[in-house]
């Protein structure tokens, strides 16, 4: 199954920051698509809710050193 969520990510200032977050998300089991946009400070993530929860997604973003807030 699959679910899409959008996440606001605070504190990214260069493309290396957004690539770090994007690569981190893409490496997680259960993530199907992850795109991080620096300019809008947003991530769009498609994931399998049977494998991980959005709280785990938010936590793994925070683990990279950026603040993550669920938008939708
Ligand atoms: Mo860019 Mo981000 O030099 O923490 S990698 S600012």
DSSP strand tally = 4
Radius of gyration: 11 Å
Portion of residues in helices? Answer: 25-40%
Identify every distinct bound molecule in the structure, by name, code or SMILES: dioxo(di-mu-sulfide)dimolybdenum
Helix and strand pattern: EHEEHE
Report strand %. 25-35%
Q: How far apart, in Å, are the first and last alpha carbons?
A: 18 Å
CATH class: Alpha Beta
The CATH architecture classification is: 2-Layer Sandwich
Features:
single chain; 72 residues; alpha+beta; Alpha-Beta Plaits; 4-stranded antiparallel beta sheet; 2 helices; 31% helix; binds dioxo(di-mu-sulfide)dimolybdenum
What do you see in this structure?
This protein is of the alpha+beta class and 72 residues long. The chain has a single domain, classed as Alpha-Beta Plaits (2-Layer Sandwich). It contains two helices and four strands. The protein has a four-stranded antiparallel beta sheet with strand order 2-3-1-4. The longest helix has 12 residues. The chain is globular. The structure holds dioxo(di-mu-sulfide)dimolybdenum. The site of dioxo(di-mu-sulfide)dimolybdenum has 4 residues, from helix 1.
Compose a concise summary of this entry.
The chain has 72 residues and is of the alpha+beta class.
SSE arrangement:
Elements: E1 3-10, H1 15-26, E2 31-37, E3 42-47, H2 54-63, E4 67-70
Antiparallel strand pairs: 1-3, 1-4, 2-3
Bound molecules: dioxo(di-mu-sulfide)dimolybdenum.
